[in-house]
Design brief:
The complex is a heterodimer of chains A (352) and B (295). In chain A, strand 2 and strand 3 form a beta hairpin. Chain A is mostly helical and 352 residues long. In chain B, strand 1 and strand 2 form a beta hairpin. The chains are: A mainly alpha (352), B mainly alpha (295). The interface between A and B is large, with 51 and 48 residues.
């Protein structure tokens, strides 16, 4: 939980359960919101806003995975499949029935949630890597169904998806989408932050730490696991729906299994089991991908024998090595480093 | 009936290769309780490695295999020493993610070194088809089956008779006891990885010989051996054999009878559907130990 600086006392219950306890934190939060909603759109060009949009969508997806894996301890390597389901639900409703964003977005969340319920069923009897394998199998099955969906999913050709329209304003540029995506990801962050402080959130942590002990304490662990799966898949569905409406066109190739592995891996790099860790992971994931895009031409020049796909292989190696390095050297992730930095500022000039 | 028999025979012969690859996963799991998600990538990597030695360096098949062995030992040692040894005692998620990340590193290495379209081995086996009754079998399938059988017998003898094999089995039973008897447990882990990579290599080589050296199908093949291991049970060598043949049969039958109904490609997804059903009904597989946990 939040660490308080010296001299902050809780005198009422309202203070005890407050999210923002010190003026310093409130200031930080206001600065962050100012930065996101006012400064960024003023100074950044469309390219930077495009990166921010992808980061925002990734943050939403990562928050869901963090609730399932970081808080409830169930390993999911099928996260991209949930995102794909959200995307395809939105696109099918948009392309075939002509529904608007305000209708497709909740439908995508609902459909993904239902699917999460189905995927959660094996978790009644299994745990650990068995769940990882069952989610992986779920990914293969989902992608196969999408590929063989006939006219509904248009197979390998993919589906168009209309840009969101609110009150006659079409969100068809990066700048307009930026506000929508950021508003939704801030909302998702607040929801996740509060969710993990509820009875269910604490139940998730109990299941993660030891599910038998949790059951012994009277928690219905099957219900908790199913809830974690449903919440995770709903976040993924929201991210997928946003992604589809943001891109305007989706194909099945945008949802490879490898992305699920990167989501898991960068959640570990960010720091599992904390909301800020998930956000760090999402930002780090997309920024590293940008760095690779920038450096790829240089690598191509330095080693002319490599082809374009060779540089893609370099990306995979870099990401994989990063994940292994973090697992071995700093399993608690960037968030842990951030907390250490924060507390050393707070305690200065004393070492601890 | 002829169609059914044809499917059964070809499914059985494919299943024998699956069984060999699944054995690799089982050996690593038994020795060090690490579930190796990188198996599919290693299958592809070894197939490419032998292709490289045979075609780019113009080596005979036997020399190519002999030269690839020290490379495999070095890889096994590096995996164990640099990745899995530091993760001892971490939660199971760490080992799972480490092998998944390793899989991507290996995949990346393949695209880095050998980009581009699929390759084929130079032909060194007789090709042709023989007919038994109404069933057609290619000679390559028979050779695959014989090589898999030989590999099985070899490794079974190794585990039953040789001192090193017995040491490995003992280590799998109890690390602490093995250590107190003076067994270097880390070396046993390296040996387990070495044997597993050889199994993956043989399987990958045989499949690549039939279908071409191509990254995606070979990785998918290794992923299917996950279904085999789950069906057979994580700890059982017999389970890997039976599971491999069962998955091969089910896949061939499913593809044969369901393909016309849904328009092709069933064999890509059928093992995973079986896998989910097994996990729902009998999560520890046919011959796996049912774990009893205490708080």
């Amino acid at each position: 939980m939040l660490k308080k600086p010296c001299g902050t006392f809780d005198e009422t219950y309202a203070q005890d359960i407050a999210c923002i306890r010190t003026p310093f934190r409130a200031g930080l939060l206001i600065l962050l919101l100012l930065f996101i909603f006012i400064i960024m759109p003023l100074v950044a060009d469309d390219y930077v806003l495009g990166i921010m949009n992808v980061i925002g969508i990734t943050v939403i997806a990562m928050l869901g995975l963090n609730i399932l894996t970081g808080y409830c301890g169930q390993i999911s390597i099928g996260h991209v499949a949930f995102i794909a389901v959200g995307s395809y639900t939105s696109s099918i409703l948009s392309a075939h029935l002509g529904w608007q964003f305000w209708a497709t977005f909740p439908s995508a969340i609902l459909v993904s949630g239902l699917l999460g319920l189905i995927v959660a069923l094996p978790s009644l009897r299994i745990k650990g890597f068995y769940i990882a394998i069952s989610t992986m199998a779920f990914h293969y099955i989902t992608i196969w169904i999408i590929l063989h969906g006939g006219d509904l999913t248009k197979g390998v050709w993919g589906l168009p998806c209309e840009f969101p329209i609110f009150f006659g304003i079409s969100f068809d540029t990066e700048r307009k989408m930026y506000f929508l995506i950021m508003a939704l990801s801030v909302l998702g962050t607040i929801m996740a932050f509060n969710l993990v402080r509820t009875k269910f959130g604490r139940g998730f942590v109990a299941v993660r730490d030891n599910d038998i002990a949790a059951e012994f304490m009277g928690l219905n662990i099957f219900r908790l696991k199913i809830m974690a799966f449903i919440i995770c898949s709903m976040y993924a569905g929201a991210a997928g729906s946003l992604y589809a409406h943001y891109l305007g066109m989706i194909t099945v190739e945008q949802f490879p299994l490898i992305d699920s592995i990167w989501y898991m891996g960068f959640l570990i790099i960010g720091g599992m089991g904390s909301i800020s860790g998930a956000i760090f992971g999402a930002i780090f994931y997309r920024l590293i991908a940008q760095v690779v895009i920038f450096t790829a031409p240089m690598i191509g020049e330095a080693f002319p024998s490599l082809s374009v796909s060779g540089v893609a292989g370099f990306t995979q190696i870099l990401f994989g090595v990063l994940i292994i390095l973090f697992l071995v050297l700093e399993p608690r992730g960037l968030n842990h480093r951030w907390q250490i930095t924060l507390s050393s500022f707070r305690l200065w000039p004393f070492p601890y | 009936m002829a169609f059914f028999l044809q499917l059964v025979v070809s499914g059985f012969l494919t299943g024998s290769v699956y069984a060999l690859m699944a054995l690799g996963i089982v050996i690593i799991y038994k020795a060090s309780s690490v579930f190796n998600f990188a198996h599919g990538s290693i299958v592809a990597f070894t197939a490419y490695l032998i292709w490289h030695l045979m075609v780019n360096l113009h080596l005979h098949i036997i020399f190519a295999v002999i030269i690839s062995l020290p490379v495999i030992i070095i890889i096994a040692y590096l995996i164990q020493r640099l990745i899995l040894y530091p993760l001892t005692g971490q939660p199971p998620l760490a080992a799972i993610m480490a092998t998944l990340a390793l899989a991507e590193v290996v995949n990346g290495a393949i695209t880095l070194f050998w980009p581009g379209p699929a390759r084929t081995y130079p032909k060194f086996l007789p090709t042709g088809t023989i007919q038994i009754g109404t069933v057609f079998i290619t000679l390559e399938e028979i050779v695959n089956f014989i090589i898999c059988g030989l590999a099985f017998t070899g490794f079974m003898l190794f585990f039953q008779k040789s001192k090193l094999g017995l040491t490995m089995r003992g280590t799998a039973e109890d690390h602490q006891l093995a250590r107190s008897e003076g067994v270097k447990v880390n070396r046993i882990f390296v040996l387990a990885w070495f044997i597993a990579i050889i199994m993956a290599g043989i399987g990958g080589f045989l499949m690549a010989n039939m279908h071409g050296v191509n990254q995606e199908p070979l990785i998918a093949l290794g992923m299917k051996s996950l279904a085999v291991v789950i069906l057979g049970g994580m700890e059982s060598i017999l389970g890997a054999v039976i599971g491999g043949i069962a998955i091969g049969l089910l896949e061939a039958l499913g593809a044969g009878y369901l393909d016309p109904l849904v328009g092709g490609g069933v064999e890509e997804v059928f093992p995973f559907i079986i896998l989910v059903i097994i996990l729902l009904i009998k999560p520890y597989g046919l011959f796996g130990y049912k774990r009893i946990e205490r708080v």
